Amino acid sequence: MNTLFKAVLAAGILTVSPMALMAGEIAVIVKTTNSNFWQNVNKGAAAAIEGQSEHTMTFDGPAAESDIADQVDMVENAISRGVAGIVLAPSDPDALAPSVKRAFEAGIPVAIIDSALGEGAEGTYQTFLATDNKTAGELAAQAMIDAVGTEGKVAVMSYVAGVGSEIGRVGGFTEYLAANSSLEIVGPFYSQSQMATALNQTTDVLAANPDLVGIFGANEPTAIGMGRAIEQAGRAGTLTAIGFDGNADLQDMVRSGVLAATAVQGSFQMGELGVQAVLDLLAGGTVEPMIDTGVVMVTKDNIDAPEAQNVLY
Hints:
Layout: H1 3-11, H2 18-22, E1 24-29, H3 36-49, E2 55-60, H4 68-80, E3 85-88, H5 97-105, E4 110-113, E5 127-130, H6 133-148, E6 153-158, H7 164-180, E7 184-190, H8 195-208, E8 212-217, H9 220-232, E9 240-244, H10 248-256, E10 261-265, H11 267-282, E11 290-292, E12 295-298, H12 306-309
Parallel strand pairs: 1-2, 1-3, 3-4, 4-5, 5-11, 6-7, 6-8, 8-9, 9-10
Antiparallel strand pairs: 10-12
Protein name: Substrate-binding domain-containing protein
Signal peptide: 1-22
Keywords: Signal
């Protein structure tokens, strides 16, 4: 439990007892509800709250990841209605920081998931649960090098510029390629996490760069759009495509060979462990400041193995 939360309780500033503070709503607010990845976070959150008599869980998010103002409003509304705790995947590292600070000042414990807040926000939330996105990007880059070698052109299809997960993931990928190969980077291109945008962008990239040896789609909707464009262009199998995340569409693309691999995060674990962290804090316990929820490189060879099935959704 954070120091301010303890101090508020000790000083009697809040008008409810500590036991009453333990009960109530835990608001899970993600980047968008229109994604299987975030719906899998919802499933994990629901699993953590199942059987709880003191707590309820709500799940919300904007229509699109780029609707940052809507997400800010959702967090502000959660604070105003006095939720017991918040699990938040911030769409923008800076825009959400003031709201998280207000939650902290209100004595509401916050678990940040998936994407980090901006510099200066440290101390206003209790724990950060995420894939180590830099490591995930590096794993994807090594898989690319293993498949295509160290010469040629690789396109990078990204999602929302400046988001914490994107900075680590795409940065890890491009920096690793630069340090360990002579591969030329084409892009990155930003889909705003819209599948149709990614499809159109990838179609243009493939047409403009017939000599591509590889392409990386850095999140679920981007990778799906990328894969569909590859199929439509008849390029499946002629270049190495690596995706990110693991819904049914991406699994089908791995099985069919459109994707050589996809890096899959523990999205279920983000929801489950995020809610559990808030429950632990409300019960007076402590949590680790950083919890790594992991990543698995899923290929045709291991897609049916337990290590992959445990993270696919």
